[in-house]
Amino acid sequence: MDDHPGHQLTQLGKPKLNIFDNVTLLKMWCETTAQAIFPQRKIGYLKESYEANFLVVDGDPIQDFKNTGKIVMRVKAGMILAAIKYPR
User: Fold this and answer.
1) CA-CA distance, 30 to 53, in Å (whole number)?
2) How confident is the model over 28-49, as pLDDT tens digits?
3) How far is CA 48 from the centre of its chain?
4) Which has the least CB within 10 A, 37, 55, 76, 86?
5) 55 belongs to a structural domain
6) Does pLDDT of 1 surpass 50?
7) Average pLDDT over residues 2-6
8) Residue 23 lies in a domain
9) How far apart are the first and last CA of the chain?
10) Between these two residues, 73 and 30, which has the higher pLDDT value?
11) In the predicted model, is pLDDT for residue 73 greater than 80?
12) Can you give the three-state secondary structure of 12-38, one letter per residue?
C-alpha cells in the first residue's frame, strides 16, 4: 500500500510509469539527492570517511522497489536510532 500516492517517486517509479529501473531509482534517492542537497557533506555512499547514515530495509529493493518502504532500522552517524519490527 502506498502511503504517499502523490509523491514524485511514486509517480516516476515502478510499476506505474516504468521510466526508471530500480537501480537508477535507488541511485537517485541515495546518491544524487544527498549530494545535491548537502554538497559539502560526505554522504550518499558507504565509504570510508563518509557519514554512516543509512536505512536497513527488509528485502532487496533492486528486486522489488516496494521494499524501500519496509524500513527495519535507521542509523545516523554510526548509531542505531531505531530498530523497527516490520510486519511481513
Assistant:
1) 10
2) 888 888 888 889 999 888 889 9
3) 20
4) 37
5) yes
6) no
7) 48
8) yes
9) 13
10) 73
11) yes
12) HCCCCCCCCCHHHHHHHHHHHHHHHHC
Q: Other C-beta atoms within 10 Å of 58: how many?
A: 15
Provide the 3-class DSSP secondary structure of residue 10.
helix
Residue 2 is assigned to a structural domain of this protein? no
State the CB neighbour count (10 A cutoff) for residue 13: 22
Q: C-alpha cell of 50?
A: 563518509
What is the number of structural domains in the chain? 1
pTM here is 0.65
The answer to whether 13 and 65 are in contact (CB under 8 A) is yes
Structural domain of residue 27, as residue ranges?
8-83
Task: Tell me whether the omega of the peptide bond preceding residue 39 falls within 30 degrees of 0, making it cis.
Answer: no
Grid cell digits, residue 75: 542509523
**DSSP states along 50-76:** S---EEEESS-TTT-GGGGG-EEEEEE
Grid cell, residue 58, equals 527488509
Confidence band of 72 (pLDDT split at 50, 70, 90): very high
Q: What is the pLDDT of residue 11?
A: 47
